[in-house]
Amino acid sequence: MTPDEMSFFLEGTNGRGVLLVHGLTGAPAEMRLVARHLHRRGYSVYAPLLAGHGADVDTFRRSHWQDWLESVQEGTELLRSRTDAVFAAGICVGGKLAMLAADRSPEELKAVAIYSPCFGYDGWNVPVSYQLLSPHVGWLAHVPFLDRLNFRETSSLGIKDERLRQKIGAMATEGVLESFPGTGIVEMRRLGNALKHRLPHLQTPTLILHALEDDLSNPRHARYISANIGGPHELRWIKDSYHMIHVDRQHRQVADFTAEFFEAPHASTRC
Predict the structure, then answer these.
(1) Dihedral through CA 44, CA 25, CA 156, CA 152, nearest 10?
(2) Could you give the percent of the chain with pLDDT greater than 90?
(3) Predicted confidence (pLDDT) at residue 145 exceeds the cutoff of 60
(4) pTM for the complete prediction?
(5) Quick one: how far is CA 130 from the chain centroid?
(6) Nearest-angstrom CA–CA distance, 210 and 221
(7) pLDDT for 163-188, tens place per residue?
(8) Cα 33 to the chain's mean position, in Å?
(9) Which of 139-143, 229-233, 250-254 has the lowest mean pLDDT?
(10) Pair 54, 175: CB distance under 8 Å
(11) Nearest to 39 by CA among 59, 20, 58, 60
């Protein structure tokens, strides 16, 4: 499967479109469960492949968070050409990219949903070595060997349901990378810092969804966004799921919460 074939579009019926943004080292395929539920509610859905993703570790290593953001902005423009109103939702890094895209072009996106926000891996199932590394990512970015270090997902893959975990684990052929270089953590940190800087100024209505049992990202990250964002927002908790709430046991609830938020007056009437 080529990178061009990984992105997908579903034509809706209500004149509204949702841009679904996958996570770090992920691929559009991981957004299909939420996409199907949103599509059943009438939404057009577009899930683009982020720059540097979908190929191999070397290709990923050459990309930066600004490249990923450009992919989101391009996807927003494409979806806007096909619908009357555009919203965006993304998992982890994808959600942060959606928020920054809305901050840069508030007239383009009426509302945003961020799933499982993460500024650093500190969940209950994250190896101690990852947690010790995270606070020092800033200066480690200048160490030459960092780009040669590869990190793997935890054994749970951020998914509580074993059947769904096996399904996602088989997505390597659909562009999901099984490991990522240390530079990916650096770029995630830089993206997070950029979002933190803009949070007080961000006015786009934002839904924050986070699992109480998130194994990769402590719920404090969701609380941080809720406490510091400048615009209207809502924080809701997901039960019986790990980090990947958009594919785990409560993915239908995630899709329903997302659609309900996008259909609320503060989002649907925003100009």
Answers:
(1) 180
(2) 68
(3) no
(4) 0.90
(5) 20
(6) 9
(7) 888 877 676 667 887 777 777 888 99
(8) 14
(9) 139-143
(10) yes
(11) 20
Dist. CA 35–CA 48, nearest whole Å: 12
Structural contact between residues 117 and 221, judged by C-beta atoms closer than 8 angstroms: yes
Average confidence (pLDDT) over 101-118: 96
Strand partners, 150: 181
d(CA 80, CA 74): 10
* 113: its two tokens: 């949903």
Q: How far apart are CA 15 and CA 263, in angstroms?
A: 12
Residue 44, CA distances (Å) to 11, 39, 81, 112, 208 in order: 5, 6, 12, 15, 22
**DSSP-based three-state secondary structure for 180:** strand
Task: Return the structure tokens found at 157.
Answer: 């893959």
For the chain, the straight-line distance linking the first and the last C-alpha, in angstroms and rounded, comes to: 39
Rounded to whole angstroms, the Cα distance separating 106 from 206 reads 12
The 3-state secondary structure of 70-123 reads HHHHHHHHHHHCCCCEEEEEEECHHHHHHHHHHHHCCCCCCCEEEECCCCCCCC
69's CB contacts (< 8 A; 6+ apart) are 97, 100, 101, 191
Confidence of residue 61 (pLDDT cuts 50, 70, 90): confident
Query: Within a 10 A sphere around the Cβ of 1, how many other Cβ atoms?
Result: 11
Q: Which CATH class, in words, describes the domain spanning 3-268?
A: alpha beta
pLDDT value, residue 176: 82
Six-digit token string for 217: 């990202």
